[in-house]
Amino acid sequence: MSTPTGDPRSAQTRRRILDAAADEFAERGLAGARVDRIAERAGANKQRLYAYFGSKDQLFDQVIEDRIGQLLDAVPFDATDLPAYAVRLFDFNRAHPELVRLLLWHALERPGVLAGLPQTAASNAAKVEALRSAGVPRPEALLGQLLALVQGYSLTVTSGVDAPDVDTVGADLHRAVALLRAAA
């Protein structure tokens, strides 16, 4: 699998493929996604897609890492104020409902792979260490519980079915994470 080496056209093509693949995977999951549709949406050929990403599975993983990278850039972790961090994650998920869908598809179709993806593993390790340094017992468990709460609250709002008031959900999430942190 090759990666672009400074050629702006290669970088632009790679970006178009990632964005087209994110749309396709969010809509249809890994099994339902078609490389032909991704290539067409991206204005690229299938050979270029395979040259950059290797396989459809690897492309899916790269889409996840790309979107998580966007989240990490937009929502820095704060071990000293977990409730506010959780609400910022929730707000990001609301603004990017495709990420919620992508993560659900990934969990269903590539179980256990997410935690081993390089960026995800590094980010989680840094968060656990920050929590440990803040004196949190069992930081891995707390981080997992916090992320599960955010994902669950995000699903209630992005599902579109009788979605509750967003401000109420954010306040409820803030309280839930504060209670979770206090119990840790």
Describe what this molecule looks like in 3D.
This protein has a single domain (8-183), classed as Tetracycline Repressor, domain 2, CATH 1.10.357.10. It is built from 9 helices and no strands. It has helices at 8-32, 35-42, 46-53, 56-74, 82-95, 97-109, 118-133, 139-158, 166-183. Helix 8 (139-158) runs antiparallel to helix 9 (166-183). The longest helix is centred in the first third of the chain and has 25 residues, at 8-32.
CATH topology: Tetracycline Repressor, domain 2
Q: In one word, what is the shape?
A: globular
Number of contiguous helices = 9
Counted beta strands: 0
Report strand %. under 5%
Structural class call reads mainly alpha
Low-confidence stretches: none
Kindly report how far apart the N and C termini lie.
Answer: 44 Å
Largest sheet: none
| CATH architecture assignment name | Orthogonal Bundle
Encode the helix/strand succession as letters.
Answer: HHHHHHHHH
